[in-house]
Design brief:
The complex is a heterodimer of chains A (about 325) and B (about 525).
Chain A lengths: L1 H14 L2 H21 L6 H26 L7 H17 L4 H26 L3 H19 L11 H7 L1 E2 L2 E2 H19 L1 H11 L1 H6 L4 H27 L10 H11 L11 H20 L4 H26 L1
Antiparallel strand pairs in A: 1-2
Helix pairs in contact in A: 1-8, 2-13, 2-14, 3-8, 3-9, 3-11, 3-12, 3-13, 4-5, 4-6, 4-11, 5-6, 5-11, 7-11, 8-9, 9-11, 12-13, 13-14
Chain B lengths: L1 H11 L2 H5 L9 E12 L2 E12 L3 E5 L6 H9 L6 E6 L2 E3 L4 H6 L2 E4 L11 H5 L14 H15 L14 H14 L4 E5 L7 H16 L3 E5 L3 H7 L2 E6 L2 E7 L5 H9 L17 E10 L3 E9 L3 E6 L5 H8 L7 E6 L2 E2 L5 H6 L2 E4 L3 H5 L6 H6 L7 E2 L2 E2 L1 H14 L16 H15 L3 E5 L7 H16 L3 E6 L2 H7 L2 E6 L2 E6 L7 H9 L2
Parallel strand pairs in B: 3-8, 3-9, 6-7, 7-8, 13-20, 13-21, 16-19, 19-20
Antiparallel strand pairs in B: 1-2, 1-4, 4-5, 9-10, 11-12, 11-14, 14-15, 17-18, 21-22
Helix pairs in contact in B: 6-7, 10-19, 15-16, 16-17
The chains are: A mainly alpha (about 325), B alpha/beta (about 525).
């Protein structure tokens, strides 16, 4: 089984242009080297683990966003789904519902919101940007309405273990992220669904004429996105031990940034989750390193803005180079 | 030939000639195109074509699909750059490197698909990008309205310049396009199949406008397949065939038959004929299929082991017919029977499940996922057979794809090469390999050899022959008459959405026989 995973990852890499892949790793390595030179603490093990933990929730949600963007869509509602999942989980846990049931309900909520997004987009032709922009407002409003805009707390003590446990010395969030990415790499490369996501995003008429159920595939992409946003909401609640309707604000753009920095084209059909993981780590590394260097959050935002543009700039440059 | 090349150097080298206005006017030729050649990778679309246009003349450009007419027009309008040759306008050598050059030189092209903004008034469309300004810098609406009204009146139409374009019919929109060309003082006007969508009375009005323009000294290049109207409106006619210049004739003393003969030429070298392996068993039957106004009451049967050729000009409804059969377009009415049982085909997926597949003429737009590998593209509709416990067995997929590439003699650098990087012929063979791997009972090939080289063509023919020998059936849509004659067991001819003729036997048929039913009157 393990060899199979390795094969999948290799094949995915091969499908992207080699220069692009190398460039992505070099970019991340460059950023790490710069911070290592500027801050002695940066390369310490606790700090590196800290980066991984801090990147993990965005990374997990971005895995779902990757599926949507691969089909040529976009999901702006993920941040609001995080909040809605978080507050509804908080209320259920406060009322003493069992953890397993809470997880099941929250995941069902996330997938349902995704299914609504996907169905309206594929059956009615409302553009993804508009549909998910609307859903962003709806889910955020619902999260606020659930508890009158108030945060929820007072959860059973074992919730925290979801966030603070460690497996073989690794923080458990790192393990969650790894599991999500391995599963999604296999889904994208070695299942029909994954292939169809690429086909629909790469050439919709060709996919349809090849007998692909294009609408179903689009719905599936948004269901994945809703699912991972809900999981992200649960994990965030566990980490903060606190559920707020303002959770996940800005996550939609962070996840899109991770996907785009990772080389998945917004036009669809090209890219994959490996790149998205690198993109999420890039964002996490920049935030961590800049904070260590005492750069104010204002300038952090400016830097990250430049990085997003540069990543796509090099993408386009390498495409032009190939023509 | 050498003389014209020499002239090119003396005039073209000297920038000053270009700047001096009104230099030599050697003849009364408005436009001369000499030795125009356009080479695409692997294909020469135009090979030393000559064309002249006099002022006040309607010059018809005639040729089959793919003869090079639109390439020539695209070079004139700046959409393509010529590989070699000279263009002279009013006797001066000009370089047309883009649409803005063409506009500056007074060349306007009116395409079949009109480029107007339907939600704005006529006058705004006419002066789009060249709005009149008031002294304060605002758009001068009153002046635009006046000027637009003047031009429309000159053309002899009764369109009010303040009407929104969306409230106009096709014919009136065409007038607006012509008015737009007049507003920039175009003296060379290209009309691409202007009457294709017009009724008889609209056509008559268009012709009277064309006569007005002629009287004003505008030169008109007129592209049409409607033989009947050419004599009525055209003065001279230049025929192209396979990118070559065939000749220019006066329409007043040339018969329709002669024109058809010029278009078709000598029988172009045909490869080996095939021996039919058609049976009597009807696999698929299409009954009174209708699609809007583009496919009208088409019925035919397809037999096992048969290659059924469907011939017709571009726009005759062939592609629409095919797309209705596979459910890509929703047919207005009509039924499809498979093995005598009515088949409900609402989308291509159901067609594939019923064993009917469509290979589009547009490989890049509707065939390949260009960013993905050859292997990905071949496996796409056949993933089910590689599944092992829900996962795709990549080794099995890979070996199946390799085997197919070998069988169709497709040579690619690697099975993981991006499809984008393949030649047209190899791309086509990858698409075909995809379906050969999937297996189907009815293959609908739409222009199977468009834009691919001769060797690849032969191989595609070989694959098609092999498929019918193995018991499949093929519908082959093609504009290439030699191909239709060579491959088909029977031939259907389409014209304006209907079947205009069915040839039950191919032996002894000539291209002229078929073309006569394609163009009609």
């Amino acid at each position: 089984m393990r060899t199979k995973w390795v094969i999948s990852l290799q094949a995915e890499t091969r499908r992207r242009s080699l220069t692009r892949t190398i460039g992505m790793y070099l970019g991340l390595a460059g950023v790490i080297i710069v911070f290592a030179l500027l801050s002695p603490y940066f390369l310490s093990v606790p700090n590196l683990l800290n980066i991984l933990v801090q990147s993990s929730i965005i990374a997990i949600i971005a895995a779902g966003q990757t599926c949507v963007i691969l089909t040529g869509g976009i999901d702006l509602s993920v941040g609001s789904i995080v909040a809605f999942a978080s507050v509804s989980a908080g209320l259920m846990m406060r009322d003493g519902m069992s953890m397993l049931v809470v997880w099941i309900i929250v995941i069902a909520i996330g997938m349902s919101i995704g299914a609504v997004n996907g169905s309206v987009i594929s059956f009615s032709g409302v553009p993804p940007f508009i549909m998910t922009l609307g859903m962003m407002g709806i889910a955020r409003g619902a999260a606020l309405a659930l508890n009158g805009g108030m945060p929820v707390s007072g959860f059973p003590p074992h919730l925290e273990r979801i966030a603070s446990a460690s497996v073989m010395g690794l923080p458990v969030f790192v393990v969650y992220t790894a599991v999500v990415y391995v599963i999604m790499a296999i889904v994208l490369n070695s299942t029909k669904t994954g292939r169809y996501l690429y086909a629909v995003g790469g050439n919709k008429p060709a996919a349809r004429l090849s007998g692909v159920n294009v609408r179903a595939v689009e719905v599936v992409a948004y269901v994945f996105s809703g699912l991972f946003a809900a999981i992200g909401g649960m994990l965030l609640t566990a980490r903060l031990n606190y559920a707020t309707p303002l959770a996940g604000t800005g996550y939609e753009l962070d996840t899109v940034a991770a996907v785009v920095i990772g080389g998945t084209a917004l036009s669809g059909g090209k890219g994959g989750v490996t790149g998205t993981l690198i993109g999420a780590l890039m964002l996490g590394t920049l935030r961590n390193g800049l904070t260590l260097l005492n750069v104010s959050s204002y300038y952090q935002q400016i830097t990250i803005g430049f990085v997003i543009i540069l990543a796509v700039f090099f993408d386009k440059a390498s495409e032009r180079g190939r023509e | 030939m050498s003389a014209s090349l020499g002239k090119c150097c003396t005039v073209g080298d000297d920038e000053e000639h270009f700047l001096n206005s009104g230099v030599m006017s050697m003849e009364d030729c408005l436009l001369q195109m000499r030795g125009i050649t356009k080479a695409f990778p692997g294909v020469v679309a135009l090979d030393h074509v000559d064309f002249t246009l006099k002022s006040g003349e309607v010059h018809v450009l005639l040729g089959e699909n793919g003869a090079g007419k639109s390439t020539l027009i695209k070079i004139l309008s700046g959409a393509y750059r010529k590989t070699s040759g000279d263009i002279l306008i009013n006797g001066r050598n000009v370089e047309i490197n883009g649409p803005s050059d063409a506009m500056r030189l007074g060349v306007s092209v009116i395409y079949q698909e009109l480029n107007l903004n339907p939600f704005t008034p006529v006058y705004e469309n006419i002066f789009l990008g060249r709005e009149f300004r008031t002294s304060r810098g605002f758009v001068d609406r009153r002046r635009a309205l006046q000027e637009a009204g003047r031009i429309l009146e000159f053309l002899g139409t009764d369109i009010h310049p303040a009407t929104l374009v969306k409230n106009l019919g096709i014919a009136q929109r065409q007038m607006v396009e012509i008015a737009k060309a007049m507003a920039v003082d175009s003296h060379i006007l290209v009309l691409d199949e202007p009457t294709a969508t017009l009724t008889d009375s609209e056509t008559a009005r268009l012709f009277s406008i064309i006569r007005n323009l002629k009287a004003k000294g505008v030169g008109i290049i007129y592209i049409s397949h409607r033989m009947g109207e050419l004599g009525e409106i055209g003065d001279r006619c230049t025929v192209l065939r396979d990118g070559q210049y065939v000749g220019t004739v006066e329409l007043s003393d040339t018969s329709q038959d002669e024109l058809i003969r010029m278009m078709v030429g000598r029988a172009i070298e045909l490869g080996e004929g095939r021996t039919s392996c058609a049976t009597d068993e009807v696999v698929m039957e299409v009954k009174s299929l209708e699609y809007g106004g583009t496919v009208r009451n088409v019925s035919f049967g397809l037999r096992r082991g048969e290659i059924l050729g469907i011939s017709g000009l571009v726009g005759s409804g062939r592609t629409e017919l095919a797309k209705c059969i596979v459910g890509e377009y929703r047919k207005t009415s009509g039924e499809i029977f498979i093995d005598g049982r009515q088949a409900a085909i609402g989308c291509p997926r159901q067609a594939v499940d019923n064993g009917i597949i469509y290979i589009s003429e547009d490989r890049k737009g509707e065939g390949l996922v260009l960013d993905q590998s050859v292997c990905f593209n071949i496996g796409l509709p056949s993933l089910d057979r590689f599944l092992k416990r829900g996962f795709i067995d990549r080794w099995q997929e890979r070996s199946a794809a390799s085997e197919l590439l070998q069988r169709t003699n497709t040579k690619v650098p690697s099975i993981y090469t991006e499809s984008r990087n393949l030649s047209g012929g190899n791309q086509q063979k990858v698409v075909i390999s995809r379906w050969v791997l999937r297996g189907a009972r009815v293959y609908i090939f739409d222009e199977p050899t468009r834009g691919i080289d001769v060797a690849a063509k032969e191989e595609v023919y070989g694959i098609m022959d092999q498929l019918v020998r193995e018991g499949a059936s093929i519908v082959m849509i093609s504009s290439e008459l030699p191909e239709i004659l060579r491959m088909s067991d029977r031939i259907l001819v389409m014209r304006n959405g209907s079947l205009s003729k069915t040839f039950e036997h191919v032996s002894g048929l000539s291209q002229e026989d078929i073309l006569a039913y394609e163009v009609g009157d």
